[in-house]
Write a structure and sequence with these properties.
The complex is a heterodimer. Chain A has eight helices and 17 strands. In chain A, helix 6 (238-247) links the parallel strand 10 and strand 11 (249-251). Chain A is an alpha/beta fold. In chain A, the strands form four sheets. In chain A, strands 1, 2, 3, 4, 5, 6 and 17 form a seven-stranded mixed beta sheet that branches. In chain A, strands 8-15-9-10-11 form a five-stranded parallel beta sheet. In chain A, strands 12-13-14 form a three-stranded antiparallel beta sheet, with no helix packed on it. Chain B is an all-alpha fold. Classes of the chains: A alpha/beta, B mainly alpha. The A-B interface holds A 146, 186, 190-194, 228, 252-257, 268-270, 273-276 and B 25, 27-36, 39-40, 43-46, 48-49, 76, 80-84. Bound molecules: flavin-adenine dinucleotide and iron/sulfur cluster (2 copies).
Chain lengths: 366, 160
């Protein structure tokens, strides 16, 4: 059977916000691209996030995805294959030749139908530039076993809370109405013992916004926020934080452990230099980000480097990969928020366009 | 307390002492204090605070503190520390510095004097050897020289 070859200036691996932003930026520069997404739908992690507004917008960034998808749909230069991933890649002149393999997805049906659709068969792609926008992987909190994840009922991850926020929290709390909710920050981040020295940048804001939503819907819910320091990047949080400190209990201590108690999970922590124990209905572990699970395979496939934290790319440059014609976009490069990932996608696209320029000019003269 | 009264070199001294290497990585997260059994019972014993005092250079306050001798060496703090500070070991480093600077607790100093003078925690004299002979055990002689060398003290028994 003849293998189909698709020719495109740029191929973008990963259809999250960073990949989509890169595709839009390329198209604004007059360059077509092919977005290859492993899952059944576009949007990456953000597709699972709900709006966190209470009485006003809290700039969580979740709505930016709908905007990106609308713009992608309006641009015919952007082709999309879902349920596909690269299985082979080789440098080919100034560009790259990739083999794409269809992926079986048993997950939910695509939320947004777009031109393109699932990759029908194994295909070849010839591209002048490759942008890797495969995202980061959330840290699995069970690796910090002392916090009781999957061991103590009523201990959940921040992503699980996000998934339940629009539905029922009682289910998460094992049937109890959660009136006492604790957040434990930096689970899997800023942790030398795991080799994760970095701050994941988004989890403080993520937790505090969810805490606000909970308090807005169930006034009187007691929120305790166990943290080292509050890292809310890039937005005017000062006023909001002062307000939150009035409404929530901010404890500047990382708990020692979480155990099962008669009325819910119990948190052992230090206050006033003494060890204390407090009981909650729900304990939320604010997991951070890890390098993408496929980082090792991808860095081998595309001969690209990894940052000192294990993400794709290099410490020295924002989007370079160490391989000619290959660029890194979004949280695959390191912890980033939605807005930062969108901006980073545009920076990667600009670098890819710079790499493509001589090739495009040559083609025009040929 | 004035900043001028702090010794900025103290943390480097602790970090250079065997066991003290990890101290500067501390985030002040207090996971150690949460899990410390001594912190649960002794007012003022707070690993996070002790580390902070060292990092701030409050040398005299740390070395003269009776608290540094209360660690039970259970290693609970070490187990939970995300930064691999190894507080149990750090405290050993601090105690070694304190002992050299003459801040050893009186009871420990007395033990040192006893070891230096007799090479044992109990003096062995004629009475003890007579009892040993009665029980069919060989006599023992005091051999403090080895301990004097290890402890770095003068044969007279006083501290150098
Ligand atoms: C717990 C948590 C909470 C967060 N909270 C917030 C928040 O409140 N606010 C905020 O701004 N940000 C938040 N973020 C960050 C946000 O999720 C990221 O900024 C954003 O998802 C990054 O987009 P991305 O495109 O780089 O990656 P992703 O969204 O991860 O998308 C990557 C895409 O690539 C696809 N892919 C992966 N590998 C392959 C492959 N080999 N082939 C083809 N496709 C592939 C994936 O299926 C996915 O669709 C949070 C992240 C986490 C983990
Ligand atoms: S954003 Fe907050 S919770 Fe996340 S790693 Fe940074 S400090 Fe820790
Ligand atoms: S657990 Fe480690 S990082 Fe946290 S305060 Fe104690 S020594 Fe410092």
């Amino acid at each position: 059977m003849a293998v189909k070859t698709i020719k495109t200036p740029a191929v973008i691996i990963g259809g999250g916000v960073a990949g989509l932003a890169a595709a839009i930026d390329l198209s604004r520069r007059g360059l077509s691209s092919l977005v290859v997404e492993r899952g059944p739908r576009l949007g990456g992690r953000v597709a699972d996030f709900c709006c966190k507004a209470t009485d006003s917008c809290v700039r969580c960034g979740a709505c930016r995805l709908a905007d990106l998808v609308r713009r992608v749909a309006a641009r015919p230069e952007i082709a999309i294959y879902t349920s596909a991933k690269p299985v082979a890649a080789e440098a080919d002149g100034d560009g790259w030749r990739l083999t794409l393999e269809p992926q079986r997805n048993n997950g939910p049906a695509p939320v947004v139908e777009l031109a393109g659709g699932p990759l029908p068969r194994r295909s070849q792609v010839q591209a002048g530039a490759v942008i890797l926008a495969v995202g980061a992987t959330p840290f699995d909190p069970s690796a910090k076993s002392r916090f009781g994840y999957r061991r103590v009922p009523g201990v959940v991850s921040a992503l699980e809370l996000e998934g339940a926020l629009e539905h029922s929290l009682a289910e998460l709390a094992g049937g109890r109405d959660p009136r006492r909710v604790a957040f434990i920050q930096c689970v899997g981040s800023r942790d030398e013992s795991l080799g994760h020295l970095y701050c994941s940048r988004v989890c403080c804001g993520f937790a505090l916004r969810m805490a606000r939503v909970i308090q807005a819907r169930r006034p009187g819910t007691e929120i305790t926020f166990f943290h080292m320091d509050v890292q809310t990047y890039g937005r005017a949080w000062a006023g909001e934080l002062a307000e939150m400190r009035e409404q929530m209990n901010f404890v500047r201590a990382m708990p020692g452990e979480v155990t099962a108690g008669p009325g819910g999970p119990q948190v052992v922590y230090a206050a006033g230099g003494r060890s204390q124990t407090a009981e909650f209905d729900l304990v939320v572990l604010s997991q951070g980000m890890r390098p993408p699970v496929g980082a090792a395979a991808l860095s081998q496939l595309f001969a690209c480097t990894r940052t000192s934290d294990g993400f794709l790319g290099s410490d020295a440059e924002p989007v370079a990969s160490g391989a000619a014609g290959v660029f890194i976009a979004g949280s695959a490069r390191g912890p980033m928020s939605i807005v930062e990932s969108i901006e980073h996608g545009a920076v990667a696209a600009a670098a890819a366009a710079g790499h493509l320029q001589p090739l495009v000019r040559e083609a025009a003269h040929a | 307390m004035l900043l001028n009264d702090c010794d900025p070199g103290f943390k480097h001294q602790v970090a250079a002492e065997p066991g003290g290497q990890g101290i500067k990585a501390c985030f002040a997260c207090a996971a150690c204090t949460a899990r410390c059994p001594v912190a649960g019972h002794v007012e003022g014993y707070d690993p996070r605070r002790l580390i902070r005092l060292v990092l701030l250079g409050r040398r005299e306050e740390v070395l003269a503190s009776p608290l540094i001798w209360l660690c039970s060496t259970c290693y609970s703090c070490q187990e939970v520390c995300p930064q691999q500070v190894s507080f149990t070991e750090v405290l050993t480093a601090i105690k070694n510095i304190a002992a050299r600077a003459g801040y050893g607790p009186p009871a420990t100093e007395a033990v040192i004097d006893q070891l230096a003078a007799h090479g044992r925690l109990l003096e062995v004299g004629e009475f003890e050897n007579q009892r040993r002979t009665d029980l069919g055990l060989p006599e023992v002689a005091e051999a403090p020289a080895h301990f004097q060398k290890v402890l770095g003290v003068e044969p007279a028994g006083g501290k150098s």
